[in-house]
Task: structure prediction
Amino acid sequence: MSGLTEGRLDLILIALPHDLPSQVETMLLFEDDYSLATPRAHPLANLSRVEGTDLAGRRLLLLERGHCLQKHALSSVPGVALEEDTSFSATSLPTLVSMVEEGIGVTLLPNLAIDAGLTAGHDLHLSHLAGAAPRQIVLAWRKSSAQSDIFRTIGERLSRIKDGTQ
Result:
């Protein structure tokens, strides 16, 4: 974010929720839901859909502290206090997937990463997390930018590509 606010970057793609300075303008491109990734032998692995309440009392494998996806996952289910498994943390999503596949625990994965092939070739189960607050994928730029109209046009095109309406 500092690259944007300090003028080193003109336009960024970012997932919210994220603390944004007041001088930043955003444009929503799309929302990104979560799926619960479990080992095949896990009690929740037979469900195509899980509720946030199914995760109450279960500790989640997450990315290391300070990573925005860690904060997103912990706050993804309104009204349910999700807990982190602090005995393990990962530095990347592929590492999290491998940890789940090995039976170390369960995690939440953004559907955007799953759609991009993150879990392909891995033996684990994915369940849709119903009722979760999706991440918002946005373009962000400085409100003072003279290129705001161009950035909005870029955003509109990216949204159409994601929707498949190109």
About this structure: The chain has a mean pLDDT of 91. The first strand starts at residue 12 and ends at 16. Residues 148-163 form the longest helix (16 residues).
